[in-house]
Amino acid sequence: MRIVIAGINHETNTYCLEQTVASDFHQSRGERILRSLGTETSIGGALETCAELGIEALPLLVTQAQPSGIIERATYDGFKDEILSGIKNQLPIDGVFLDLHGAGVAEGIQDLEGDLVLAIRNLVGPDTPIAATFDLHGNISAEMCENLDGTFACHQYPHIDLHLRAREAIELIIQMTSDGIRPVSHVERLPMLMPTTTTFTGIGEARLALMLAAEEEAGVIDVSWFHGFPYADTEHVGVYIVVTTTGDRAQAARVARGLAADLWAVREGLRAQSLSAEEALAAAQSSEARPVVINETSDNCGAGAPGDGTHLLKVMLDAHLERACFGFIVDPAVAEQASEAGVGATIQIELGGKYDDFHGQPLKLSAYVKSLHDGKLRMRAMFKGMPLHIGKMARLVVNGVDVIVASRRSQTFDIAPFQALGIEVSEYDIVALKSSNHFRAGFAGIAGSIVTADTPGLSTHKIEIFPRQSATGPLWPTDPTARYPE
After folding, report:
1. How confident is the model at residue 273, as a pLDDT?
2. Is pLDDT at 46 greater than 90 in this prediction?
3. Residue 478 DSSP SS3
4. Residue 210, Cβ neighbours under 10 Å: how many?
5. Domain residues of the chain, as ranges?
6. CATH number of 2-270
7. Angle ∠(239,168,148) on CA atoms, nearest 5
8. What is the DSSP string of 308-377?
9. Phi-psi region of 452 (alpha: psi -120 to 50; beta: other; left: phi over 0)
10. pTM to 2 decimals?
């Protein structure tokens, strides 16, 4: 068997100021894609499954960029054409595996994944299996699913299971080829803008348990719960339940609608509590379980925010905390300044707040350069084994607080940035970072308690501040007239 491996993976925050262009993407082609073998990623899982089952993987093009603004049309068209050309050159094939996100938006194309999948389907024909993995924060269209045989969103948030979902996608392609089954899917939309909700605890964990239980029903291949991506102004923004069966459309619709009705009934439990920087710090200081991790959800690079917001950091510095660290703020100019000054130097800096006024003002500080690092890390929890390059890093000491500065946008996934600069987080009372929930994969076993700060930022839980011009109807919780079924 011969299965194509390809993908365009981007979570598009349509409220970002800048466009996303080709140079923003990490682009892997051909043999380079095979380097992902052994990593806990979607591509890694697909390659591992192919290798175990003696399937010839045909790696074409896999691109991924940090969540950011709308993709330049020429960039998307170039990637799309390259994938289509690559598939055409490999025909005949036995299947196509795609690594997608679900919230991609390009200039003039609100449903990037739908556009790409349709083009591939038109090329390979109706009988060639196409299966894809997705981030659960996708805004999924029914049109996209009509052209896929398998739609596998990761179940977990943090996304620790994409490699496992990729295995299921490859296995479905094999099953279609060997057993002749023709899967069908039903896409059920809920008019919701769901706050970022972890599946590790609470209501997210309980709802996921119901989804997984529904997968045990005979004839059900998969249940995918798409939480949606609320930081996108698109027609199809929302929450989705996608159920795939071995051929029974009525069964798929029944299961999807039942799970959707349950989720709608408990929606008020999904409302996020928004703490200001001052409130979050006060809660952390009053906690007896140490270390306390404060996650600044609203300045999460993993949702398109710049990562240079200063709201929480300023409050921490003003408090002159002991045994506190902040990891990290994105400011390449300050990281370079510290690198040039060297370890042991005291430098005058203007830190962060350079993207816009919304995320805070630059902080004028005197900082001691404690240590430096090149920022070449390897992920330890989520996407385990994958390299992470965040550019030059510096550990600065300001008002007794250890502040990590990095050069490239990324949320904080695990302890690697801290340890690289000599910080053992377990020895601190307060550990602050920028992430919504992915940090839990690396910190759940370390944190005595977790406090979420929701300061002004592009990934704030206060989604009512974002204008909606494309939505086709009312959406909970911003509009109390939203109803399900619509």
Report:
1. 87
2. yes
3. coil
4. 14
5. 2-270, 277-460
6. 3.40.50.2300
7. 55
8. ---HHHHHHHHTT-SSEEEEEEE-HHHHHHHHHH-TT-EEEEEES--S-STT-PPEEEEEEEEEEE--EE
9. beta
10. 0.95
